[in-house]
Amino acid sequence: MRDDDGAEVLAIGGGPANLSFAALAEPAAELRVAVVESRGSTAWHPGMLWPSSRLQVSGVKDLVTLVDPRSRFSFLNFLHEHGRLYRHLVACPDHVGRREFDQYFRWAADLLGVALHEPVQAVEHDDRGFVVRTGRGTRRADHLVIGVGQVPAVPECARHLTGPRVWHASEHLDREVPVGGRRVLLVGGGQSAGEVAMDLLSGRTGLPARLTWVTGSGGFAPLDASPFANEWFNPRFVEYFREQSTTHRARLLDRQQAASCGITGELLAQVYRRLYELDYLSDNPFRHELLAGARLTGISAERDGFRAVLTDTLTGAERETRNDLVVLATGYGARLPDFMAPLRDRLPVDGDAYAVGRDYRVHWDGPDTNRIYVQNGARHSHGIADPNLGLVAWRSAVIINSLLDREHYSLKRDDITLSLDWQEPARVHPV
Questions:
Q1: Residue 416 domain-assigned?
Q2: Are residues 302 and 272 in the same domain?
Q3: Given CA atoms 12, 14, 15, 18 in this order, what sign does their dihedral have?
């Protein structure tokens, strides 16, 4: 039972970040948390939930386990409650499917009583605290935890395009547009682009007459999931990253691109094998162009499709292609939500995103008794791990400790192999 005098915390957004926060906050008697979600479900990237999609982190990196392994909201408890723990361990010894984690998130959301169909329209503040106007009325809160996720990033030259023939990869499965016999332009070089490419090549909605796949990076590169790259997703490295200057942080992020912007080697092999089959083992007419180191620099709608301008990043040479459909697998970015507009002038904003402190708090000009925290919007200040599922529980625990002004969760300084201070002498570990 929670103390009726506890702080009212409104978590805006029902994605993994706020599900983790609400789950870990449940044992804290001083906090009363409500979670609101604008959509009708807490489905996790439903536009990209292919049956074969795999989680790119361990199933142990769920909503709670790395902070509280005994929590009832763990992924293992979800499997246990549904009577499939043993079968899961046999069927998935080395990976977890994204669809299964989506089921897990929905289960946790139901246990936590997430309020669905409740979009937040505006956040204001008066002498009693935050006034949050939603599609279902008005809520009051002492503190806010904003976890609305990132928004699809679209190249500037394509932002004017609308209609059923151009879409962001996040909507791919929702569109269900037949691609058979049509010319398709796919832009992007990350995991989402690879999954969209494999779907297009599968013939699920027909085989394209031509696929033009463009990535601005140096090639169709594999994601660096090696052990030392994974050290960048350790809380110790986040703390180290925070201590660096703005210039050094930018340099670190640039060095770490391969750990966040590539395609898994397994998926690259699948795409290559499928192209080989279509080129040599199929009677279906099909053409493809894979252009590495090329950027989409211009695009315009025509009566029968789209005219795209592609620029070689090495030589500056340009070429035009004509396409019937365009898929933009161009990633995501943090953005100040529209509902925060009434408070925008009172918030420290870095570009179009929040300036976030060490504990993910936005140090606005309001009273300390009314705090604002942001989840999944601090990559520039907390490193490439910020949008990654692997640190979601640790980040939630940091916020909870900050809200309570005490160490509710003991965030022990777990070991890290990387030496983060070159002046520090070598460590000797006891045998």
A1: no
A2: yes
A3: positive
